[in-house]
Amino acid sequence: MKKITFFLFLFAGIFANAQSLTLKGKVVDEHHESLPGATILVKENNKGTSTDFDGKFQLNLLKGDYTIQVSYIGYNTVSKEISLDKNNKIEFTLTPNATVLEEVLVSAVRVKADAPVTHSNLSKKEIAKRNLGQDIPVLLKYLPSVISSSDAGAGVGYTYIRVRGSDATRVNVTVNGIPYNDAESQGSFWVNMGDFASSTQSLQLQRGVGTSTNGSGAFGASLNILTDAISEEAGGEISNSFGSYGTRKHTVKFTTGKVNDHFEFAGRLSNIYSDGYVDRASTDLKSYFLQGSYADENTLIKALAFGGSEKTYQAWYGLEADQLKEDRRQNPYTYDNETDNYWQDHYQLHWNEKLNENWSTTIGLNYTRGKGYFEQFKGESAISKYNGIVSETATTWDGKPATDLIVRRWLDNHFYVANGNATYKKNKLEVVSGFSYSYYKGDHFGEVIWAKEFAATANIRDRYYFSDASKKDFSVFSKATFNILENLKAFVDIQGRFVNYKTGGLTSDRNVLNVGEKFNFFNPKLGFTHTINSNNSLYLSFAKANKEPNRNDYKNGENVKHESLDDYELGWRLKSNTVQLNTNIYYMSYDNQLIQTGGLNDVGDYLRENTKDSYRLGLEIDGNVKISDQFSINQNITLSKNKIKNFILDRDGTETNIGTTNIAFSPSLITSNALVYQPTNNFQLSFLTKYVGEQYLSNTNTEASKLESYFTSDLNFIYEIKTSSIFKSIVFTGVVNNIFNKEYVDRGYTYLNNWSKSTSFEVQGYFPQATRNFLVGVTLKF
């Protein structure tokens, strides 16, 4: 009996010693404002949580000594050592980090965790898990409502992103608050930003209108990229990765760290090459990133230069159905230099000044220089298109003078930007006011570099067309966040945007193009966030956006109009120690939306046309569930209806109302899932899946234009070895894309030759994506 009693007391003592204790805490800024979404890390076991909407957190820990580290973007990281022998409470006060440009972006284009704007964030650590050479759109493909694609099929080269069915011309992209979208086409060409993910500190994707303060209007999303932060310590990285289709990435990074407590110089050189999944769809990207910084307690000055060059073998037109069936990897182009060649350099200067506890100012300057051409072989091309450069004695086709020749079509442009804003913050009030001005100047021209026979008065590289363009874009804004009640916060944003676009001369088909348009847009935004309790909040917002046509729209039609969008968002956020859930309903109502028809122009861009009345109605659910310390599930799903009301089809001057139809390239179901297993601090394994429902390539609802749904799966791992000599650590990263070897097509085009309610005839093209492929890499950090 005594032995049994002894063991009972022993067991009780062990249980009491091992029982879980509760550590509660709160994270606030220097104004005692709560910081929701701050990261809490227990350094001894590398486990943690994040703060709720009131800036509070809770950890269950065994009795013992711990170091608790708290971090938040734009603030200095703070650590405290505690000895936990009973339930306890603790508070952390974070101060702004003068060495991070995040304050610039938060005040100008980013939003905080509790803002009434639907958004997702990705940190540098999260980006690094898959950063093995593929472009940023591919790295974002598991975010809610996002679809990515590439011409070459393997995610390197010409890559594309869609958000809520809207293409890249409708996604406003900024780099450190500077507009990146091309001023004329309004697209973002990631092929000119090779390995830019390696110089990205964090990014935020806002779905819907968002807070697109600078640059072109956002009709699908805003993507705000922040480049590398200043490093406190000297260091560097050598990163190499290799994979399928001859893909390889080589990156070298360095930083001097803080010199004399104020100065830092950092840089990156990269080279990415891939043969592509599609035959001869090769990509050769060379890029650089240089940064010089000065920081003290109240001042941050950054000078940046980044850019590079690309050479990409063209695969712009995909494959027709019979070609896809015959050999899905073939490339119809046979000319050995059917390539796109472009050089682009960006120069930025940012000055962020904290005047006092309440006021701060920011100035951003940018100059972008871009120049390049694509080269094409033109077989039996009508010589009338080439301004007398080609001889009239050339061969004939179909009774008309024609010949074989090779052309280069050039872009030569300059882009200047000046941004400025001032921020006032006191207690529960924050006001940001500012301006953005950009000026674009660009030339378009074509050269004949070879022909079977030149005209007697012509020379090689004579231009057969020329047009110049200029665009001035000026916007002023003021936005305020303030508390109406203790648990009710309001967000008000007004923007005036004034655009002046001119272009004149000839198109590549030698058609006259003269445009002189001015637009005056007023874009108000209003939102409310109601904090129900520390775990739940609701938000409601309305935003209006206006957007001008792009250059191709003017080339394709004389009566093109600007478009308008009213965006309504209603969301619920849940945040606890084990579950984070973001749910929102959106309704986006368009007037004269410029919708893609499904056809392509002569450079592989989608054609667009105005549709008077259309809308997108959707439900987005984004959840993260922590099952245990080792397992978590990340799941998101988008259910939507994307409709054109009373779609008017114009064929050869005959207009037909075919009723309500589906908007092209807008699947009604998109879902992603990630199963994450982290057995140790230095190893993580993720199984990721993506499903995209069926969609239409045109707006006519015909079966011929329907693109089948697809489901793909990837396997991703990252393993880090800490070392004590030479290198700080060695990181191994790998991904197996499309692990189940699915043959799928995620994008295409269609030409409607004939249509009636009883019959239709269409010609389709498709962009096949890679079957099972892999990338593996190793990074040496020192």
What does this structure look like?
By secondary structure, this protein is mainly β. The protein folds into three domains: 17-94, Immunoglobulin-like; 102-226, Beta Complex (Ferric Hydroxamate Uptake Protein, Chain A, domain 1); 227-781, TonB-dependent receptor, beta-barrel domain (Maltoporin, Chain A), CATH 2.40.170.20. The protein contains six helices and 45 strands. The strands form eight sheets. It has a 22-stranded antiparallel barrel.
Q: Roughly how many Å is the radius of gyration?
A: 28 Å
> Termini, distance in Å?
62 Å
Q: How much strand?
A: over 45%
Unreliable spans:
1-17, 755-759
Structural class: mainly beta
CATH H-level homologous superfamily name of the largest domain: TonB-dependent receptor, beta-barrel domain
Largest sheet: 22 strands, antiparallel, barrel
What is the CATH topology assignment of the largest domain?
A: Maltoporin, Chain A
The CATH class designation of the largest domain is Mainly Beta
Give a quick rundown of the structure:
With 782 residues, the protein is mainly beta. A hairpin with a 3-residue loop joins strand 18 and strand 19 (299-313).
